[in-house]
Amino acid sequence: MSASNEFVGEARAVSRHAPRSHSFGWAGVASWFGGVAGLLVLAVLWEAAPRVGLLDAKFFPALSAVLAKLAVIGATSEFWGFVASTVRTWMLGLVIATGSGVVMGLVIGLTPGARKYTHSTIEFLRPIPSVALIPGVILLFGSRYQSGVVLITYAAFWQVLLQMLYGLNDIDSVARDTARSFRFSRAAYVRHVAWPTLLPFLFTGVRLAAAMALVLAVTAEMVIGSQGVGRGIMVAQASNAAAEAYAYVLVAGLMGVAINIAARALERRLLRWHPSVRNAGGAR
Amino acid sequence: MIASILRKLGVELALPLILFGLLYALSASSTNFFFPPLATVLEKFNSLWLGPRFVSDVVPSLLRLLAGYAMACVLGVAIGTVIGICAPLRRAAEPVLEFFRAIPPVAMIPLLIVSMGFGNTMKITVIVAGAIWPILLNTVEGVKAVDSVLDETCRTYQIKGAARLWHFILPSASPQIIVGMRLGLSIGIVLMVISEMFAALDGLGAAIIYFQRSYEIPQMWSGVLMLGLFGFVLSMVFRLFERYLLAWYHGARDLERQN
Q: N or C terminus: which one in chain A shows less Cβ crowding within 10 Å?
């Protein structure tokens, strides 16, 4: 599911998924029904808890109230402006992080010895929480959207870079030696040997980075106050409009779900040929 | 022997030292108000963070993080195991969990402030609410993906209940659970800092944002440095824990790779 195949999935991927024929038919229907049932239970709980007084409706409005509010703000241009700003920040950060992660990954992974020398630096910089950069970006950009882009780039870059390095580490030694025997040029090696191995790893990295980027986009908007869904949450909360605040939180969650579904669909489509996807039979 | 250790150390330290030296030299003559010389920042670091601020800010942050993270681990593994074992429950829970995971945890902070106030309860709840998802989801995945041969072996030997859980399911899911815990830790640190930036009298996040707002720039950068070290040290500790707990797994992987 989330970061599952980061280390572990690869070794088990083939054995753990049911054969293709099992993923359709009754199992698929049961899984679909189960999922709908789960969501329904959640909806009923959300509706009932404030109504019977389990939660204070002033702080925790019922689902119907939140949805009604969402319908109202969904008709305003301000709302769509917020959504568009968040998407722009997310997209810019993700693209810059992916591009630089891929380039750095190739440089470090394919230069002999580079990995050894950069290892300690990467291991030091990676765990630095991206929020540590918040005061710095506030000084540089104030509440403009670039602040969010910098935070996203920093956090997402490591996801992509690490997956690139894992991927380059995973190149089949037979394939590598074969390429060497055939005197592949460096470019041909990257194109025909490294890239196909890398791609699934890269996709995992980008998928993780995409989810993380949305979280950071919203965080930056909330903490720094740049335009976007996060700012919508803050403004609504500051004016005691609980239903509106929850409506924006709901929107942020739905955006996250949409990003996840889109990333997985893309992964399945572009990696059709790869065993890890073929064996999963499209069930995931 | 000693030469090889020294060479290894040299490889590890070469790039960090070069980068540090470059930064130090390039910033030495900086007159930019926002980017003071590294020497000034280090001086502040020494007087602030190795002094009174360590006890008054770093320790409260750490305690909140540990409390929230420990709760997230226990709850995440417990709930994740139940969901992972029970297939109907898993089918029902999957979309719900996907949705909760997708909500940026920081978005919950203002809503929790309203109902819980500004105290430690709110901050710890925020950390739990954010850090639990990767742990829970990875536990579900790990429990779901137990090896079928081992599973059948357990069945044949009539290993059931607590023994099955303790000797088979949890160990076989543990590599994946650990991946989730590592992700959860970094999310927990982020949420610790953000929740303190929103509302706190003490803690790393509160200190950094205070320095930034009062334009005490070298102090602010020293706080950023402290926060970086904080994250780094915790991830090192986690790695030791992982290496200890998963020694068998890494050993088996290495062996597999050699063959």
A: C
CA–CA gap between residue A193 and residue A175 (Å, rounded): 7
Q: Where are the alpha helices (DSSP H) in chain B?
A: 2-27, 38-49, 52-53, 59-85, 87-102, 108-116, 120-144, 148-156, 161-164, 170-198, 204-213, 217-245, 247-258
Q: What is the pTM of this model?
A: 0.81
Residues of B in contact with A245 (CB under 8 A): 110-111
* Closest Cβ opposite residue A38 in set B96, B107, B253: B96
Q: For tokens 């090696």, name the residue.
A: A189
What are the angstrom distances between the C-alpha of B5 and each of A115, A126, B1, B8, B18? 18, 25, 6, 5, 20
**Could you tell me which CATH number the domain at A61-280 has?**
1.10.3720.10
ipTM: 0.78
**What is the radius of gyration, based on Cα positions, of chain B?**
23
Region of A75 (left: φ > 0; alpha: ψ -120 to 50; beta: rest) is alpha
Q: How far off is chain B from A39, nearest CA to CA, in Å?
A: 6
Which residues 40-69 of B have a C-beta within 8 angstroms of A? Answer: none
Q: B252 phi and psi, to 5 degrees?
A: -65, -40
Q: B2 at the A interface (CB within 8 A)? A: no
**Of B60, B36, B51, B55, residue with least CA distance to B216:** B36
Cβ-proximal residues to A215 (8 Å cutoff; 6+ apart), any chain? A256, B104, B105, B106
Closest Cα in chain A, distance from residue B161 (Å) = 23
Cβ separation A260–B102 shorter than 8 A: yes
Per residue of chain A (284 residues), give pLDDT as tens.
333 333 333 333 333 334 444 445 666 777 778 888 888 888 888 888 888 877 777 778 888 888 999 999 888 988 999 999 999 999 999 999 999 999 999 999 888 888 888 888 888 888 788 888 888 888 888 888 888 999 999 999 998 998 898 888 888 888 888 988 999 888 888 888 888 888 888 988 898 899 889 989 999 999 888 889 999 998 988 888 888 999 999 999 999 999 988 988 888 888 887 776 665 544 43
Does the beta-carbon distance from B145 to A237 stay under 8 Å?
Answer: no
| Long-range contacts, stretch A11-17, CB < 8 angstroms, 24+ apart | A11/B253, A11/B256, A12/B145, A13/A275, A13/A276, A13/A279, A13/A280, A14/A275, A14/A276, A14/A279, A15/B147, A15/B148, A16/B144, A16/B145, A17/A279, A17/A280, A17/A281, A17/A283
Measured between alpha carbons, how far is A240 from B94 in angstroms, rounded to an integer? 33
* Angle between helical axes of A77-110 and A146-169 (0-180°, round to 10): 40
Domains annotated on chain B, with CATH: 40-258 (1.10.3720.10)
- Identity (one letter) of the amino acid at B217? I
Instruction: Look up residue B55 and give its amino acid.
Output: V
